[in-house]
């Protein structure tokens, strides 16, 4: 695990997006070259020897983390997008999130049964997005190797929720209790 102080670069925004919620703003991790490098290296290094062939990142912040992690791992990147954003045949998966429901899609030809997939996103809260991405990978016949996140809202018990659907490791850089 990196000795970098990730938590010092995360800013609390009270009452956003609604009263009573403390939003964890990770954008300072992205605008600092040293912090960005530390985030990407820590996630990529953790999964370096797992035979990852593709990284799946959920729209939109999962792109910001997933694509550079894929680059570091020397593998491909698959965007999991909102409905209507992908031009070819897609697999779709709806899911629950903290403030409602949503849906993710991937191209049907993005993954194969030969792929060993790492699911990457900026945050895991209730686990819905992560589980949806894993189910999309499995619909395509791929296997899921694990999950990597910058931030975990541990007080929402995402690890337990993910464990009900997937038995792969959940790795995070910062846990908020």
TrEMBL record:
Tell me yes or no: is Nucleus among this UniProt entry's keywords: no
Question: Does the record's keyword annotation contain Transferase?
Answer: yes
Pathway, according to UniProt?
Answer: Purine metabolism; AMP biosynthesis via salvage pathway; AMP from adenine: step 1/1
Q: Mention any Pfam family matching this sequence.
A: Pribosyltran
The domain of life for this entry's organism is: Bacteria
Function, in words: Catalyzes a salvage reaction resulting in the formation of AMP, that is energically less costly than de novo synthesis.
The text of the family note is:
Belongs to the purine/pyrimidine phosphoribosyltransferase family.
The protein's name is Adenine phosphoribosyltransferase
Provide the species name: Candidatus Olsenella excrementavium
Gene name per UniProt: apt
């Amino acid at each position: 695990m990196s000795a970098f102080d990730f938590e010092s670069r995360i800013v609390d925004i009270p009452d956003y997006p609604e009263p009573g919620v403390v939003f964890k703003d990770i954008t300072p991790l992205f605008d600092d070259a040293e912090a960005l490098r530390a985030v990407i290296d820590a996630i990529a290094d953790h999964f370096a020897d797992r035979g990852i062939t593709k990284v799946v990142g959920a729209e939109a912040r999962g792109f910001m983390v997933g694509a550079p992690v894929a680059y570091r791992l020397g593998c491909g990147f698959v965007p999991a997008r909102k409905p209507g954003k992908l031009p070819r045949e897609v697999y779709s998966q709806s899911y629950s999130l903290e403030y409602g429901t949503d849906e993710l899609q991937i191209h049907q030809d993005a993954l194969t049964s030969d792929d060993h997939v790492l699911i990457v996103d900026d945050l895991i809260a209730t686990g819905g997005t992560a589980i949806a991405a894993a189910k999309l990978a499995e619909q395509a016949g791929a296997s899921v190797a694990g999950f990597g996140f910058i931030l975990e809202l541990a007080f929402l018990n995402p690890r337990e929720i993910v464990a009900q659907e997937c038995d792969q490791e959940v790795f995070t850089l910062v846990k908020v209790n």
